[in-house]
Amino acid sequence: MKKTLAGVLLMGVSAFAAAAEPDFSNVQITTLPLAPGLAMLIGQGGNIAVSTGSDGPVIVDDQFAPLVPKITAAVKALQDAPIRFVINTHHHFDHTGGNEGFGNAGALIFAHENVRTKMASEQVSRLMNRTMPASPEAALPVVTFDDGVTLHWNDEIIRVEHVASAHTDGTAISGLRRPTPCTWVTPS
Ligand SMILES: [Zn+2]
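Above: inputs. Below: predicted complex with zinc ion.
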């Protein structure tokens, strides 16, 4: 059979579409320590960043709903404390699928305002021939921002910034740094 570029692309698309609903029971969450208080979780879907420390766990993205118990266990192994915040990098289902579970467990969800707008209504992907229904209220970001937001947390400065003209119109990147020690003192 003669393969065409379109055919190969379609094969790729159908494989991707099929891969979008894997058997989550076989998914294992692997923890990759990056630095003291910072780790990455690898499972199915977008990788998850975890900040831990004196204030409590913060995670960036949360993969798929069925993985919430496994992600929770992986975070608990890093720090046995409730997850306080979830930051979504964008609205796609492989990055926000755990929102409802983590939101119901008490985490406050942060994202660009377009993430909330998109998740609150039905989304259709012509590429994947797939329709995603509107997310339930509990899955929607509670704190939304336009240009960015800064968390002063776990002795870090966690900066989340919207990136225009990126993967989606609500894409944000996050980074963290420790505050630079100041050499100035306040006279008593
Ligand atoms: Zn995406």
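The chain has one domain: 24-177.
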